[in-house]
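cron nightly-structures :: item 1 of 1
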Amino acid sequence: MLRNAATIVAALATFSTVVLSANPALAQRFPDRPIRLIIPFAPGGGTDILGRVLAPKLADNLGQPVVPENRPGAGSNIGAEQVVRATPDGHTLLLGSNTQAINATLYPKLPFDTLRDLAPVSLIAVAPMVFVAHPSVAAKTVADFVALARREPTKLNFASPGTGTPHHIAGELFFRMADVQVTQIPYKGAGPALADVLAGQTHFTVQTLAAARPHISAGKLVALGLASERRSQVASNIPTVAESGLPGYAADLWYGLMAPPGTPAAILERLAAETAKALGSAELRDKLTAQGFELRPSTPAELGALLKADVEKYARVIRAGNIKVE
């Protein structure tokens, strides 16, 4: 028995050595065929736009086609699971977002563990979100809004693009930190929610700055504050929520590349480096900036830290608000 056990241990050690030593060679050969870029939402949205602009430049850098594939459903969980189950060789990637951080708690029966089963590659971009109100609301700043909500509890209503969306959770984090009660009215998408605020049917909403900015400029919406950690490069006159009375508030809508669990570190680092190189292209930067994105490449470790922090932050919000999806 002892002899057999020793043989098994030796075999495992040899196997581990072979696998570890093969990783650099695997990374050198990578990629040796087209890369699938899983976009876990339907065509036309922000994730889809970002993926289809990034893919050709990333393909140029890697020397292999990068093929975007839309795999929508279950709040992005279907596409994410497809990547989790894929071979961990760098040829299947997820264009994820902070939706993954939200879903880790929002869906208690996920068939995978977000932090364990999605290997971070690189942050790509942030789409700043902004709290906007109809001009008829007696609030021009975050402080005004908080005072109004406290003075008239539950009177104000919040048009969200749907329960559990980043926009909705950004609002819930705001309410929790400000200690106010606001009624959520969920819509089937950001467009319908924005339309009803513009029409004065609901009081305020959270939208991407790209979607809301034309209406802010036209005086049809009042910008209360940015949900982002810092002011936007394209609308520096709009203060953040944090600097307007809720220090520490941040709810960035971010996008990042993720890979299957067990993908060799050398491949993750190569993908991160090529992503940063792609995002450094003036042509790509101009295209994405025009769409409202702020480019922010990172290391795998930096994206991993961001994902972990957001999972923990949004778990507290979801549990405190007893937020559930149908």
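cron nightly-structures :: done
The CA atoms of residues 131 and 206 lie 5 Å apart.
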